[in-house]
Amino acid sequence: MDTSFVAREQSRLLGELSGFLSIPSVSALPAHAGDCRRAAEWLRDELAGLGCPVVQIIEGNGHPVVWAESPPVPGRPTLLIYGHYDVQPPDPLDEWISPPFEPTVREGRLYARGAADDKGQVFCLLKAYEATLDATRRPPLNVRFIFEGEEESGGHVIEDLLHAEPERTRADAALVCDMSYYAPGWPAVYTALRGLCYAEITVRTLQRDLHSGTYGGVAPNALETLVRLLARLKDADGEIQVPKLYKAVEPPSKAELKGWKQLPFDKAAYLRDEVTAQVLTGLREYSVFERVWALPTFEIHGIKGGFVGEGAKTVIPAQAMAKVSLRLVPGQSYAKVGKQLERAVASLAPRWADAQVRLLHGGDPVQVDVDHPAFAVLDEAFATVTGRTAVRIRAGGSIPVVPDLGLGGAPVLLTGIGLPDDGLHSPNEKLDLAQLWSGIEIFGRFFEQFAEQGGAASSPPPPA
Ligand code: BES
Ligand code: MN
Asked: Tens digits of per-residue pLDDT, 187-210?
């Protein structure tokens, strides 16, 4: 690993990353479809520039996937690298200190939407790859790159591709760099990700909106009906009232719980600085880690209905809608929970209301066995650069395609160079540049060490 690479190339790298982050590749907003394509093209050009002989933009029903193959390196293992080039919508815009798509450095941190989630981390892997190329642009191992543009918005292009062509996942390991350290100085590998079931609940109680004076007192209000229904889906103690929801939940092992107890954790600082609230909610008999990593959740993301314009309008709304989601944990599945939610809403809604559940998207939870030797190689790279091996933790968040990355039997290494205060999905998302620079060295070392030790013996057979 050329350890002078970062020092030498820093200003070029910062310029390149700023260019990538300037593209507003917001996958959820149709108006940004062209920007998503531009981000895919940016990656295509970058990968071609790095000397990949195969670089493709693969079309599907949504934003495209970018696929690339390094020059073949016979006798060396194959690593599949995943990332996403799409980002979350940047709103609320007026809370950004500098605009979300004008990357700005303040105090060693690069502020932009996607800085940490996930364009900055994708960039880190590309530059680690670049740093390990020899004079003929040959990497130390075989690398397949797969980058999607719909991770944040529930598209299916990458899943359709991997189901149709599972041989693309045939690798000795898959690397997903879309997560964060446990704390500054504490790198992490993740043993599980939560799944997701995202839905819209719509309630109609009247054929049309009514005058709230003339009919107030007798006409059923759709917004009130929806709010009562939502309130019954989770009780005040935090227990979700979807029948049988908790039945499939597999509790973490004693060893895993013991590992979590050993993590440094300052509950008061967590409450004040990260959660920014006065209290923690949820099931009191469980630890914070169990609540955010090992239990399902039910959240209301937004409610639409009635009048929210300037001034006052006295109306009884006929219809109302809420966006909600459940996070799922090992043992649960998106398909089952979706049905359970539909049944719960049907049974909680009053007879005289038309209540509909529309499942928007989701993904299954994953659990990763971190005993594969690839994890030891990653630990060694982290230890060399940061002085610490990676702690084993779980993620509260979700990456829907991860179960499919393992279709070819590769162990999936879930890790990242972010920090807990990066502000993913929030205004003023950032990436600490020190994390980026050290990340390039960490993954460069990982590529080189995995090339030597990474199961060349267990190299996958060539496709039939
Ligand atoms: N990078 C996150 C996932 C993540 C967040 C992992 C925190 C570990 C810790 C990812 O880009 C993300 O936000 N995913 C969405 C997926 C959803 C829209 C299907 C999520 O978790 O909300
Ligand atoms: Mn992400």
From this structure: 999 999 999 999 999 999 999 999
User: According to the model, what pLDDT value does residue 462 have?
Assistant: 46
Question: What is the rounded distance in angstroms from the CA atom of residue 415 to the CA atom of residue 220?
Answer: 50
**What is the Å distance from ligand 1's center to 38 Cα?**
22
Residues in the chain where the model's pLDDT stays below 70: 455-464
The alpha carbon of 164 and the centre of ligand 2 are apart by a number of angstroms equal to: 24
The answer to whether the CB of 78 is under 6 A from ligand 1 is no
What amino acid occupies position 187?
A: P
* Ligand 1 neighbour 196 (Cβ under 6 A): yes
Residue 425 CA, closest ligand 1 atom number:
13
178 alpha carbon – ligand 1 mean position (Å)? 8
Distance between start and end Cα atoms, the chain: 34
Nearest CA to ligand 1 atom 6: 397
> How many Å apart are CA 309 and CA 292, to the nearest integer?
36
The domains located in the chain, with CATH, are 5-193+366-453 (3.40.630.10), 195-249+296-363 (3.30.70.360)
Segment 107-137, tens digit of pLDDT: 999 999 999 999 999 999 999 999 999 999 9
